[in-house]
Amino acid sequence: MADGLEANLARVLYVDLSRRRFWVEDRRDLVDEYLGGVGLAIALAKEEGVDRADPLGPDNTIIFAVGPFNAAYPLASKTVAVFRSPLTGTLGESYAGGRSSVAIKLAGYAAIVIRGMSETPVYLAVHEEQVKFRDASALWGTSSSETVGRVIREREPNPGLRTIMRIGLAGEKLVKFACVITETYRHFGRLGLGAVFGSKKLKAVVVSGRKSLKVPDRRGYREVYDELYDLATRSNLMQKYHDLGTPMNVLPLSEIGALPTRNLKSGKFERAEDISGEAMAANYLARRTACSGCPVACIHLAAIREPYPHEKYFYKTTVVSYDYEPIYALGSMLGVGDPVWLLRMIHEVERLGLDAMSTGVALAWATEALERGLVREEDTVVKLKWGDAEAYKRAIALIVEQPNDFYRALAQGVEKASEIYGGKEFAMAFGGNEMPGYHTGPAAHIGFLIGGRHSHLDNAGYSYDQKVKELPEPEKVVDDLMKEEAWRMVLNSLVICLFARGIYKPEMASKALIPLGINLSPDDLRELGWKIYRERMALKVNMGFDPAKLRVPERILETPSPRGQITRDYMRRALGHFKERLSEMGLLFK
User: What CATH number does the domain located at 240-421 have?
Assistant: First the structure.
C-alpha cells in the first residue's frame, strides 16, 4: 500500500476532454468549507459556470465527488455527480453506489471535474496519478452496456479495486433520461447524466486506487466504526433490506393505495403480490450483493433461466438486478404483472442504459395517449396496451432507436412529449423529472416538486405522509420538508447511503467526524446543511427554476391517495409558500 492518505483529502482532479489534458489542484479551501460530496460538487459547479452551460454542450462540466465518510465507515457508499440536466434544463444531481466512492477516494481524490468534449469516442482511465485517454471507437455503438463493461474490465488493471462507470446506446443517442451504469448493478440513474456523457463522446470513466487512509485517531475511529456497524446490522429495517431489498415496499404500498398503477389511474395493483419482494425472493433470487463498505447487501439479483430455441436441454441464464423503482415503473405503472417479463424489461433497460423510472413513466403516458387517440399506432409502431410486456420491451428499444418523430419526442422525456402531442394532464412529471413510485398523499408530491432533484429521496415526503397522524397545513409541510432536505445536504456531503439516515443522525455524524480530525457539532452540521441547501437552490434558480412555473399533474388530484383526495388549493398554497421561503433566502427569480 502507498503512504497514508488524509481521511478528509482535498485533491481535485481536473480533466479537459477537448485538449486531452489533466491536472490536480489542492482544494482544501472548499473541502474545509463544505466537507465534500454534494457541498463540494455544488461549489465546484458554481466555479465551472454550470448554470450558464448548454446541457449537451462542451461547457457542461461533470463533477464526481466523495466525502469524508467514504471508505471509512459502514454504509458510506455513494458518489454524487453534479451537472446541468438535459432532461429538466436545471440542476442535475445523481447518486450511485457500487465501488465508485471507494475507488475515487483510494485513488487520492475528493472530486473529479470533467470539462470539454472529445472529437472522437474516448474513455477515461484514472489509476491514481496516471490518467489516460483511451480510444473508445470500437466500443461506440456496442449494443449492450454489459459488453462494454466486460471489454474494459479485461483491459484495465486493478480488478476488485476499481469502478467502471459507462453508458449504453441510450447515452450515445442522447436520450435525455439516459443513465450511467456502474458495476452493472448500480446507476447514476436520474436526470440524464448518460446523455451528457454521450454528448462529450465519453463512453466510460474507470477509476482505481490502492492508497490507504490515514486516520488521526485510530482508537476513536475503531470505537465509532464498531458502534455504527452494530447499529446497521442489528436494525430491523436493514434486515428487511437484506432479506427482500427495496421491493419489500411493493405490497404495503399497494395495500394502502399508494402504488402508482396504469399511469396512476389507481393506487392499487391487482397483481402486486406476483411482483412483490416476497415473490421475487422466493422464486427468482439468485444472490445478494453489496456496495463497498456496506454490511447490509440490499442489492438483489434474479436469475431467469430460458431454453434456447430448437435446442434440447440448452438454457440461457440471465442475471438481473431488481429494485422497487424499476418494479414500480416497468411493472405496476404499465400494468405488467408477469414477473419473468418484468425482469426481461428491466434487463432491456439495463442493456441500453436508460433510467428505469423515466422509461416506465414515459411509456405509461404513451399508452394512455394512444388510448385517447392523441397518438396513432403508426406513431408508437407497436400497439401499447396495459400489461403487454412484449410490446413494452420492443418500445423500450424504440426509445433509443428513435425511428420517428414520436420516439424522438419521447426520448426527450414525458414533459416534452406531452407538450407536442397533448395529454399534459396525465403526463406524470414533476419539475420535468418523471414521477417516483409513491402516491402516499400530498407531502409526497410536494416533495417531488420542491426537491432539488425532484426525487423522493430529496426530502422523503412519502414518508412524511405515512408518519404524521394529522396532515398539517401545506405551509408547515413545506417547512418540514425543507428542513429535512437541508439535513440531507449534510448526509450527501459525507456521503452516505440514505437508507442509513436513521443511523447517521446529527449527534452520530458529529461523533464520527472527530476521529477523522473534523470537529463540527450537531448544530454546526445543521447550519452547514442550510448553507449548502441555499447555494444549491441558488444555482438551480440561476438555471431558470421558478416554483411558480411548476406544473402539478392533474392525475394526482383525481386518484385518491391514502390521505384522501389531494386538492389543487393545497398544492397551490404549498408552492406559493415555498417560493416565499426561497425569496427570504435572498434568491431572485428571473
Answer: 1.10.569.10
Cis omega (within 30 of 0) on the bond before 175? no
DSSP string, 16-70: ETTTTEEEEEE-HHHHHHH-SHHHHHHHHHHHHTGGGS-TTSTT--EEEE--TTT
Domain ranges of the chain: 4-214, 240-421, 433-584
Residues 495 and 182: their CA atoms lie apart, in Å, by 17
User: What would the CATH number be for the domain defined by 4-214?
Assistant: 3.60.9.10
Q: Is the pTM of this model over 0.85?
A: yes
Q: How many CA atoms lie within 13 A of 480 on its CB side?
A: 18
Sign of CA dihedral 195, 199, 201, 207: negative
Run of H or E including 314: none
**Yes or no: domain 433-584 corresponds to CATH 3.10.129.10:** no
C-alpha grid cell for residue 523? 448544530
Residue 146: Cβ-neighbour burial (10 angstroms; 0-12, 13-18, 19+): middle
Nearby residues of 56 by Cβ (< 8 Å), 6 or more positions away: 86, 174, 195, 196, 199
Q: What is the pLDDT of residues 319-342, one digit of tens each?
A: 999 999 999 999 999 999 999 999
Residue 369: its H or E element: helix 356-371
pLDDT digits (tens, 9 = 90+) for 132-179: 999 999 999 998 999 999 999 999 998 888 999 999 999 999 999 999
